Fold:
Amino acid sequence: MEKTLWQIYDDAQLTELDTLTADYKKFLDAGKTERECVTEVIRLAEKEGYVDLNQKDTLQAGDKVYLDWMGKSIVLFQIGEDPLENGMNILGAHVDSPRLDLKQNPLYEESGFAYFDTHYYGGIKKYQWVTLPLAIHGVVVKKDGTKFNVVIGEKEEDPIFAITDLLPHLGSKQMEKTAASVIEGEALDILVGSAPLCGEEKDAVVAHILKLLKETYDIEKEDLMSAELEIVPAGKARDCGLDRSMVMAYGQDDRVCAFTSLMAMFHTENKKRTSCCILVDKEEIGSVGATGAQSLFFENTVSELLLKQGTDSFVKTRKAMANSKMLSSDVSAGVDPLYLSVNDKKNAAYLGKGIVFNKYTRSEERRVGK
Structure:
């Protein structure tokens, strides 16, 4: 009879697994956005002896370096004894997750309520985001060029935010819609206030919100235009189940693979071949843009590694890429007994059975029986 991981592990291994799980939950809590993930990766990497590539003029075997790319992607290397053009062992994952983003001019008032206008990033089920405690994470750049991080909604004393929904007895027409349209994208605006500012006659609630933003967070209306603010579920990662055998948290796609790839990088004992871990942005929308996997930042970084090892060669850069081996990881859907129809049970992943390798993926339209 096939055993689960829990049945295979002894007490010592389970204790080590519990420690790894605790670290994983801390990683999820610290990195709810791609920027926060990169910051947390740098903090952890520097504790393991990695240094910024920009601080190194030369490289030699045994060096551990990282390169932060625009605060949204990062790549780490452990330089091996073999020439780099012989190739690398690469682990890859992504650190962005589906979310809501504030638009350039987000704040508006309607019927005595103030809202932030949003658009959604990545593939989301829109109905899952209503009546959910939400937090704001992001970066604000002031007119004088100063930049600071913003997190509102994670501390107990913080306010939280929400997207409203209809009461059940008012939603009969709404419930006739398909799940894809029961909540429209235009309805995913964040409720941020309802109290008017005394003495104001027009947009008094917006005026009050702007006053609070300035007094509490030093954010002005003009700052919102250039700010990069993301809306994510509020709250910490939690154990799930009476046996605490699972983790429930936002952003496990694909930070579970980013975290495990990072831990593997920290514990690698391969000294001959250069090891690499690349964690990128923009996967949820096609890996596009300057910080996505389709950009040239990785190839450019490999060229820089060669240059700091005494070689300036386009050909050797291409050879290093061609001779490399990469394990590209992402989340895989496990069999859910409540939704068996979407799985081919002979070729599906099962929780607790170990690492998953996929030869292919498919959408629901290619489910069993179609």
Notes: The chain has eight helices and 14 strands.
